[in-house]
Design goal:
Blueprint (H helix, E strand, L loop, with lengths): L2 H21 L36 E5 L6 H17 L3 E5 L12 E6 L6 H7 L4 E5 L10 E5 L4 H16 L5 E6 L2 H18 L8 E2 L7 E2 L1 E5 L8 H10 L4 E4 L6 H9 L3 E4 L11 E7 L1 H13 L6 E3 L2 E4 L8 H16 L14
Parallel strand pairs: 1-2, 1-3, 3-4, 4-5, 5-13, 6-9, 6-10, 10-11, 11-12
Antiparallel strand pairs: 7-8, 12-14
């Protein structure tokens, strides 16, 4: 076959092949590229956003400790309540003050308070859903939501009567006395101290004094006083007068505030009956204290308060504390406790106010 004819044939075959490829929509073996359309995607359904829940705080139990509160009582209460209040399912707080507006911001369930705090009764009345416990508020009356632990109305008379009784029990030859302040309360204390002394030492003849048997002979008890304005540095002068009367045991009224007097008497080996914790450096001469143990009364009453008891008025009994067994033996203390029970029960008339010379 001639060469030009073969070339022509090959050309025709190539042209024909190209025509077939165009009619089929593409080159064989190559996938056509899609145009103009997109693959549909599924849109997820919207989900609702959860609303956050607020967990309410537990209610609050408060220990109210105003400025000037008794530090020993405050420390013991705080230690006790720091455990008891959380165990009851409450938050524990210690605050120096509370007002009616505070109850709008916090859910106070319990308020335990010690003096000095004015108008605690009004605060309790303004918050009837809160239960209050007042410890040592002597001029406060209990209410439906307010319990009160307080000293009895004649607390200082009870102290003085028992001090006079103890003084005569422990002092040879009746040589006991008292130092007081020249106030109306001091005058009542003086008569109560004398009555307690004479109750133990007087003969049935009704003598108004217990006369010493050995020289120098004096009628006891001997009572000395200073004026309300007497300074702490001046009180030892009253102590010197008592030593001149050969007094061996002296009761110091709670109205007398003078560490100098106490140290002077201890230095002179006088035995002292007081009403609080003794100074450490005079403890060897401290017979005992006569006080109303508020903390012990609080501990005794706490289960009743925590169980939801209604407002209660409790007179805290007088107790003999800080006993020096070298000066007040256990046997004598047991004997004295019998008298103390009668005094605390109100079985005895401790003073006759119509005969007291009140300044």
């Amino acid at each position: 076959m001639p060469r030009n004819i073969r070339f022509l044939r090959l050309t025709l075959i190539l042209v024909f092949t190209l025509i077939l490829a165009g009619c089929s929509g593409g080159i064989p073996g190559v996938a056509p590229t899609p145009t103009g359309t997109s693959t549909p995607t599924e849109t997820p359904a919207p989900t609702e956003t959860p609303t956050p829940t607020v967990t309410p705080l537990p209610p609050v139990g408060v220990l109210l400790l105003p400025e000037g509160a008794n530090p020993q009582l405050a420390d013991r209460l705080q230690t006790f309540l720091a455990e008891e209040i959380p165990n009851a399912g409450m938050r524990f707080q210690v605050r120096p003050n509370l007002s009616a507006s505070d109850f709008e911001r916090e859910n106070f369930q319990w308020v335990i308070a010690i003096p000095p705090f004015d108008n605690l009764g009004l605060l309790a009345a303004s918050a009837p859903q809160t239960r209050f416990l007042a410890i040592g508020f002597n001029n406060l009356e209990a209410a439906a939501n307010l319990a009160v632990l307080a000293q009895p109305e004649d607390w200082y008379v009870q102290q003085a009567f028992m001090a006079g009784y103890i003084g005569m029990v422990i002092t040879p030859d009746w040589r006991a006395g008292m130092i007081r302040v020249n106030t109306p309360e001091g005058a009542l204390e003086a008569q109560a101290f004398s009555n307690g002394s004479l109750f133990f030492c007087s003969s049935p003849s009704g003598n108004l004094a217990c006369y010493s048997r050995y020289a120098p002979v004096y009628g006891y008890p001997i009572i000395a006083y200073g004026e309300p304005e007497t300074t702490a540095d001046e009180w030892p002068g009253v102590g010197r007068y008592m030593l001149g009367q050969y007094v061996d045991t002296i009761f110091i009224s709670p109205e007398v505030h003078s560490d100098q007097l106490l140290r002077y008497l201890a230095q002179e080996e006088v035995e002292i009956i007081g009403t609080g914790a003794p100074l450490e450096d005079i403890s060897a001469q401290w017979v005992c204290s006569l006080e109303f143990d508020m903390y012990q009364a609080f501990e005794d009453y706490w289960p009743e308060f925590a169980s939801g008891a209604d407002g209660t008025q409790i007179n805290v009994p007088l107790a003999i504390t800080h006993v020096n067994p070298d000066l007040l033996s256990p046997g004598r203390q047991q004997f004295i406790e019998q008298m103390l029970a009668d005094v605390s029960s109100g079985y005895m008339v401790l003073v006759d106010e119509t005969t007291v010379n009140i300044p």
